[in-house]
Amino acid sequence: MSAEEKLLGKQVEYPKHYCPEILVAVPRHLNREIYGIHQPEKLFCGYDSWHAYEASFLLNNGMPVVGILKIVYSAASPFIIESKSLKLYLGSFHMETLGNTRKEAIDRFSAIVKNDLATCLTTAINLHFYENLPSQRNFDFKEYEILETNIDPSSLHFSIYQEYPAFLQENIQKGGSLKVGSHLLKSNCKITNQPDWGSLYLYLKAEQLPAPAALLKYIVSLRNENHFHEEICEMTFKRLNDLFQPEILAITCLYTRRGGIDICPSRANRPEYLPQYLPLADCLTQGSFRQ
User: What is the model's pLDDT at position 4?
Assistant: First the structure.
């Protein structure tokens, strides 16, 4: 049984008490090898930003504390956390008493989670617990043009819903730069086949560019792909990098929450092209349309 299959697709009850041993680490190299990503550190840098909307525990007097936990770790880590195991792990805190005051309990919760994830993933973890929504929430993709709102849908025909890289070579255009996004991103869980919905944002500068309509058709072709969120992001990055040898390439996938958690991977060929705010644990950004 693979690490991915340990919990996914199985009926598993929430642990009744704190349970770090339920966390499951999945090696990143398993999917990367399929797409020829043998030296990821030479291809891209990036982060996986997670938002857990059901983080909760108790004060010593029995009063619940609720909030949003943002977790960020590097794409250079050897593992990703399997999302159902994280959901069950965080659920194991729901009846745990962690302090006399909110600050004491939040600090203890944050320290425990940070240590457990760092141990499981063998990487540095940044996280922050939000008791309230910030008065101002930044958004990294304000300048991005949404493809489906600027293309006449009657001019296109969609019939392929498995990843189809050949679309990217249709009507290749003269070079320049693109800052585009689409809310039509949809893929499926690798194990359970449950749908994952999201938005994809792309910043590309190269001597040749994919036509916007061709790029949209490619994004739609991911509709029946069975991959984890991080894998969809890296697969798309590799396709575009191989075809266009870009000067700038950055991709972020903002997935809709499922099971109280969303996953937002970002990859870029240089650190300065990564989103400014999303990779910061202590910055709760504005959600995309699908979030």
Answer: 59
